[in-house]
Fold this sequence. Notes:
The chain is of the alpha+beta class. The chain contains 26 helices and 31 strands.
Amino acid sequence: MRRRNVRLRTLTAGAALALGAALLAPLPGAAAAPPVTAAKERSAESADSAEETDYCEGRCADILPPGANGSATLAEILAHRLLGTQPAHADDQLGPYDALSSGYPSLTDDRLTEFFNDASFGVPDGQAASVTRPRDDVTITRDKKYGVPHIKGTTRYGTEFGAGFAAGQDRLWLIDLFRHIGRGELTSFAGGALANQGLEQQFWPQAPYAEKDLEKQVEYIRSTQGERGKQAMEDAQAYVDGLNAYRVKSKNGRYFPGEYVLTGKIDAITNAGDIQPFKITDMIALASVVGGLFGNGGGGEVESALSLLKSQEKYGVEKGTEVWESFRARNDPEAVQTVHDGTSFPYAGRPEHARGTAMPDAGSVEREQLVHDREGGAKTGAKDPVKAPKKLKPLQGMYDNGVLPSALFRADGHKKGMSNALLVSGEHTASGNPVAVFGPQTGYFAPQLLMQQELQGPGISARGVSFAGVGMYVQLGRGQDYAWSATSAGQDITDTYAVELCEPGGGTPTKQSTGYLHRGTCTPMEKLERKNAWKPTLADSTAAGSYRMQVFRTKYGIVTHRATVDGEPVAYVSLRSTYRHEADSIIGFQMFNDPSYVKDAESFQQAAQHISYAFNWFYADSRDIAYYNSGANPEHADGVDPALPVKAGPAYEWRDFDPQDNTSAQTPPAEHPQSVNQDYYISWNNKQAKDFSTAGFGASAVHRGDLLDGRVEKLTEEGGVTRASLTRAMSEAAVTDLRGEQVLPELLKVLRSAPVTDPQLAKAVQQLEAWRKAGAQRNQTAAGSKTYAHPDAVRIMDAWWPKLVEAEFEPGLGKDLYGALTAQLATDEAPSAGHGPTGAHAGSAFQYGWWGYADKDLRKVLGEPVKGALAETYCGGGKLDACRDTLLGTLARAVAEPATEVYPGDDTCKAGDQWCADSVVHRPLGGITHKSIQWQNRPTYQQVVEFPGHRP
């Protein structure tokens, strides 16, 4: 790898309280806890101290903005919208999280708690705010500072019941929202906004299930996973029971989330209506959403085939394939790797002589139609606002733009990577104990998709976070003497097969045929449907409408496209190894929480082997750091190229493939990238290890992982690493522009290869040089200044990059091929752009882009060594002077572009406001909103850990 240096209306507090009382029964306390009459209570000050041994001794810290409480009654939502007040513990972690971007340069270990929470077990004496006892065998203690639930049970059932009850307190609306997403019923539940339609249309085809399919997955875990499988389903049922208990209590007590009123589920005056009971199959649906967001990998083979065809059309088959492969960069030798000691883990590589590849005939590909029978608002997109009571007018239309981004579940190869990890072995730390700074980068929502909790009970001892609704166990966090986290891995666990079409009754098949050949028999496709209808509500004024979603399921997966191959009609189907196994990973999470199972690095890696989704797992205790890449990696047939569509048939199937339960042979654990006690580990969704092929475009010479790798490598070489110094490295990377640090040096070399005589361009080059020398940061000059130290340089880079990439590559590639490749990998992902699945203000940036291609190409032009070079040199046709002219021409256009065009403004920011355009905004999933914060490219939930001791 390369090394690189609405202004609020005025309302009195009394009026707000009177308004709330007129609409809904009493305001709850912190975290929507029920009043004393709704659950058994005891004195907060008599809370039990944690009896579990905590070997971290105050050196474990974490944070999850905006706050632990993600629930608000209608009265609280109204008070927030009119007065700007926040429910207790709704935003008290936002300030410390934000402050790190300015405070990190002077950070010391003693100051970590200014920016992170103490993540010790239990609640200190005198610090318990409330203790709820929903059953006699469990207590939920909430601390005064942040309101995090600490759940302690004397029985296993009670512990899990308490976890479900606390989840209801903190995330009831969110859980309900996501179970409907998982079932493809978002519009029927939350309204017909175009974004809601788009979201369910993206997600449901990836995990379409009938209720019997969900029930079968529950039974599969219970009957095939031994005692742990049975225990897991008992735990899940207890969790659902607790969630339902809170659902009933909050409804009867009238302190349920106000969004149920705003979406027409419950009448604010009479309390008529209901919150539908939760079922264990809802947990399967929820698990499919979490896996779809963060744990999938691969797919997009049809799109890859189309871009390959464009390359072959331009250059011929042999040269076109070479050019395409150089951009595909399956195993770029310059790509930053997590296992950097040279150990090889071959997987999903390009075969020397591919067989069974099913390339479509040019111009024959058609995407399968998903939506049918649009009626009313589904056809017109019209609005039909309901008549709202005067008191509720401030909340009208709050979901008109949808509850979530419409592109959250992109079906191509650009999965949400997110998350990062930095770990240093004890050999290189000041204390001699390993240090880790890690966490999942799950986007910014209000409330967060994750929720904090501590679980203590028989066979369970952990603190951290879980995805709301599937929080039977802590999924990322710490145990008694160890901590763990994960990043999305994205390796290829999804393949595309071409099934030969036929007519079950005989006759000539067409591309629209609904029969396919399986084992020589013409087999009817199974049709799955989801019919959704909605009416306008106070929250979503989309006119009444409906439509029907339809997919066809085969034994090789879900139909995504139709085409011809060598003139014969086929359907391209997508087969994911975790389909029909959405919740199998529950076994691994159960093990992570079990102190009798995880005792060291080796047992942690063994537990991670039970995680079916594609994740990079990291572990730290007082002695070791470790890494393991999990995933249900199918064993491909010899000679099959998993990057492209493959013929469906026994000769090309996954080994031992059984379509009944979608099972197959999987690569053995020893073949998964893994390591113990490497000098350091970094991960930012980069390449895992040598020969472990990437599942999509983008893992090239420059990757955001380089921002971490160079810094942590330097720290490790110097030695004496501390929690503070490792956190500083993460924080500095979090406010650094990848292009400015990694590619701008080459750009400047080309520009400076001859004198820059134009005064305006010379000034721009000087500004860019000064910015690079200062660290290429996008950070405030001081906390609250909302101004960058080098605003002109940042503006120029933002305007310049897309222009220079197009001018550098399109002339050589040609318009068609350039368009096909940029459809596979966007050229840029700057913080201010409305990029990616979560749109603008998303925090996560610089994951996908052409910076690696540009870097390789420019070094080639400069005559510098390049490993894994592109098949051709593009900038200026490979000539330095012509390349320089290209860069100067695009730079001139960028300099002339005013800030109001570079940053055009949106619902949050005025046009031209650079800092605001970059800023992170917690997208509201309910009625509570939060202030914008300084851009940081860092985990949403983050731990800083250093264990000084270990169990004997």
